[in-house]
User: What shape does this take?
Amino acid sequence: KAGVTQTPRYLIKTRGQQVTLSCSPISGHRSVSWYQQTPGQGLQFLFEYFSETQRNKGNFPGRFSGRQFSNSRSEMNVSTLELGDSALYLCASRVTLGQGRDEQYFGPGTRLTVT
Amino acid sequence: DQQVKQNSPSLSVQEGRISILNCDYTNSMFDYFLWYKKYPAEGPTFLISISSIKDKNEDGRFTVFLNKSAKHLSLHIVPSQPGDSAVYFCAAKNQGGKLIFGQGTELSVKP
Assistant: This one.
């Protein structure tokens, strides 16, 4: 089974621009979550999509948005980029095994640099 | 408000010895806890988990301990190997299904 894939792997953008990142989950996984990783802050939860609907949302400004397609692929968009948006953006697909147990599989991430 | 905290940003251990990584949380409603390991340029990979109804879970060299009264979680690696050198994240799942991660601890195992 192929793992979680994210494109592009690296991206350089200028302040004020917008960016779209893509994530394809493991086949059969319907839940996709997005995280931002910055040094010292760990993984900050952005949002989770399940069957094309946003199921959970973190504490990020409205410049950060996402969507999920019928094939479970997901995109996240950041508008009006700021220097502080430079980070590793990780996508994870999740399957619930029952009894509260989850397995979440991460992609390799997209390294976004805003200059 | 950081609900899951890893207060040690780094830890250095000699090969063959025990590595103990710690994690504290504030929300008593978390019902599931996980540890992830991350190498540079890769996404985190799942390592081990524990339900809030247990106090210990063991998988080979890795054991996770949960102390609910202290709201404290720890990961023990015995014996530590140089290949264990990575950043370790603890995470807690709330009843809404959201995973809250700590800041990570960078483990270095020296030969």
User: Anything to note?
Assistant: The interface with chain A takes residues 6, 9, 31-32, 34, 36, 41-46, 49, 51, 89, 91, 93, 96-104 of chain B (CB under 8 Å). The radius of gyration of chain B is 13 Å.
